[in-house]
Amino acid sequence: MSSREAFERLRTQDPKTLTDLERALRFLYLQRLSFGGKVAKQTFGVDPHRGARFNSLKLEASLKLIYRRLAGVTIEHLDWFEFILGAMIVPTSCFTLIRLIGVLRITMARICLSERIIRGCPHCLHN
What we know:
Layout: H1 4-12, H2 20-33, H3 59-70, H4 80-86, E1 94-101, E2 105-112, H5 115-118
Antiparallel strand pairs: 1-2
């Protein structure tokens, strides 16, 4: 069930107190109900012309789609600079870097590498 109260309760809950499964469901719930799908400073999104964007009856189908999409993906949670220095970079590498600036501002850069970028040193990004 979708509600502003449940959204706020989950948004303010410390994810460190949750199991992996609870964290994943919390993330999915908040992402579906957030205005614009924001990952920081999430706000409850409402569209008067549509029903709620989180439907527990469709959860199994949604999880199957997510599972298929992520089936061959490796997820790393590393310091971004250490990742760049130690990355196994190949011409088809594609990754998202998230860097915290200040306390709340987050910048994201999605980098898809090409043969030209990785020529020479595999641990250095060239212009």
